[in-house]
């Protein structure tokens, strides 16, 4: 069992999965689950420990060495890793987890040139990438999910990959694989994010009474004020980005890094807004962000006032 692997990127869930996959591969290749694994942070392990770990074994025992946080390794450690990677001892699998940056940035490129098998684990930042992630999660669970269902999951859970993965698994278990957008909303109806989006949607179309009522119910239910304020800010910022643009929502979605349905929704909402009202709403949500994080003496009142004032901007 030999092999050089580079886990490249800093999306924690993907990094963990990639390392687990390589370890599984090593055990399968060795035909036993008892393959010794040494897992250390490359930036903290001493050079003498590295030399010992990466030196040939007298008995050519099968083993796996996982070096995490390799981007923070010092010069001497980098030299040892590069030297070992060029001529791995018999029976040793070396797995290097590297963010792609850091003071040892060149190490990643060097390992690629050495023929390392690269496992991409870059941060997922675009909405389209998160949608793809959710689809892949359901596909791995042998369940097909349509676009509406994927969108409902993202709206209900948010952007954290670990939470999205857990939600997908739980939804499949709870529904027996019979997925739909309605089922997602039913299972996640208590989420603060969902309630926040519902309040924000009412506010940005000028439904003053509806937004105020929904907000009161959410606050009575103990929903975090920061989450509710963030949902309002996101709705306003989306209108600010989409409003000045025109054209096919599918083309704009690619440019803005948003799903097409969100662009279409914002286009309809933006028709009710003027440049001045959007600017005032942006000012309101910026002030609200500070208010719910401690700047206001009464955060509840600040949130309720901001929701009403945003809705009244449309109504006027």
From TrEMBL:
Q: Does the keyword DNA repair apply?
A: no
A Pfam family it matches: DNA_pol3_delta_C
In its UniProt record, which GO terms are filed under biological process?
A: DNA-templated DNA replication
Gene3D superfamilies with a match to the protein in the record? 1.20.272.10, P-loop containing nucleotide triphosphate hydrolases
Q: Which residues form the DNA polymerase III delta subunit-like C-terminal domain?
A: 196-307
Gene Ontology cellular component terms for the protein in this record: DNA polymerase III complex
Enumerate the UniProt keywords alphabetically.
DNA replication, DNA-directed DNA polymerase, Nucleotidyltransferase, Transferase
Keyword Nucleus, does the record have it? no
The reactions it catalyses are: DNA(n) + a 2'-deoxyribonucleoside 5'-triphosphate = DNA(n+1) + diphosphate
- Please name the GO terms that the record assigns under molecular function: DNA binding; DNA-directed DNA polymerase activity
Residues of the DNA polymerase III delta N-terminal domain = 5-118
Family membership: Belongs to the DNA polymerase HolA subunit family.
* This protein's name: DNA polymerase III subunit delta
According to its UniProt entry, this protein's organism is Mycolicibacterium hippocampi
